[in-house]
TrEMBL record:
GO terms for molecular function: peptidase activity. PANTHER family: BLR5614 PROTEIN-RELATED, SLL1049 PROTEIN. This is Transglutaminase-like enzyme, putative cysteine protease. It comes from the Bacteria. One of its GO terms (biological process) is proteolysis. Keywords: Hydrolase, Protease. Residues 171-237 form the Transglutaminase-like domain.
Length: 327
């Protein structure tokens, strides 16, 4: 059973001092029978108090604020996690029986959110593609695998062509994207055929073989299979998510699972640098201290700036949102 050492560093740098930032992090790995967290170190610049709670979807979420003016925000997360392989679905029940079982849970509270599809201009086109791909003799499991292969085959993996806010219409037009986009596409297709599907945020640890999505946070989908439960499918790599996938959170879409997001008061100009690295043993100890050198306390007095009109001042005082795209 593999043990992975994952280091995730998020670094925001602001052009001018910002203040009153409110931030949310979902950087706490899922703990279940297939994923054991051996160690987790979390450090944040200026060392704010982090309040932790579980959200509606069962994810562990941390929130913190920083009211004093600051030029940067650094978040260092380091985990050691062991993953346990999960057997594949037996898929022996007749297809008609399995589809009826999905129909029976269609209005259950636990699945309603995972069956709703987004409203977008190309909805009729994508629905038709999904229905055409589905074979009458296919089980939900075979249908899901077929859809996963379709996304992998028909869409190019190209970093930078989409953003965190890209819509399904844009992805369908470009025929390209990254893991976040492909996970959204796959969940939409599955929901069109009444198969519950949810978005998953996490990491991919490819055992040094090289896979799409490594070096950043990763995303894939989970599909609900009758008499089995949730099965992970990675359309970016056209594979079933297994022991090389480390799960952080689940939800309807990226918005429910974003590893780091927040708002602040101040100028909109900022840069984001995200680094994810994976180790394959637990010999080295994580040391966040070099990442947070000692700094003098920042004065609350902001340097004088050129005069601005009222509209410019209003824009500067707006709460600017920040979050990162998954690759």
């Amino acid at each position: 059973m593999p043990v992975f050492k994952i280091k995730h560093i998020t670094h925001y740098t602001y052009e001018t001092p910002v203040r009153d930032s409110a931030n949310q992090i979902i950087l706490y790995p899922v703990k279940d029978e297939y994923q054991k967290v051996i160690k987790h170190d979390l450090s944040i610049s200026r060392h704010p108090e982090v309040e932790i709670f579980k959200d509606y979807y069962g994810n562990e979420v941390g929130i913190f604020t920083q009211t004093e003016p600051h030029h940067e925000l650094k978040i260092f997360s380091a985990i050691v996690v062991e993953t346990i392989p999960r057997p594949l679905p037996a898929d022996t029940l007749p297809p008609a029986t399995q589809w009826q079982m999905l129909e029976d849970i269609r209005y259950d509270v636990a699945f309603i959110d995972y069956l709703k599809h987004e409203v977008f201009e190309s909805v009729a086109s994508l629905r038709q593609i999904s229905l055409d791909l589905k074979e009458d003799t296919d089980t939900p499991f075979k249908t899901a695998v077929r859809f996963c292969d379709y996304v992998f085959t028909h869409f190019d993996y190209i970093k930078g062509v989409t953003t965190v806010d890209s819509t399904l219409d844009e992805i369908l037009l470009l025929q390209a994207g990254v893991c976040q986009d492909f996970a959204h596409l796959l969940t939409a297709m599955l929901r069109f055929t009444q198969i519950p599907a949810r978005y998953v945020s996490g990491y991919i640890c490819p055992n040094k073989n090289g896979m799409r999505g490594e070096g950043a946070t990763h995303a894939w989908a989970e599909v609900y299979i009758p008499e089995y439960g949730w099965l992970g499918l990675d359309p970016t790599n056209n594979c079933i998510a297994g022991e090389n996938h480390v799960k952080l959170a689940v939800g309807r879409n990226f918005s429910d699972c974003s590893p780091v997001k927040g708002v602040y008061s101040g100028g909109a100009g900022h840069t984001l640098d995200v680094t994810v690295s994976v180790g394959y043993d637990d010999q080295d100890q994580f040391d966040p201290e070099p990442f947070f050198p000692a700094q003098p306390a920042m004065s609350s007095t902001v340097p004088a700036a050129p005069a601005k009109n009222s509209y410019q001042r209003h824009l500067e005082e707006m709460m600017i949102q920040q979050q990162q795209q998954q690759q």
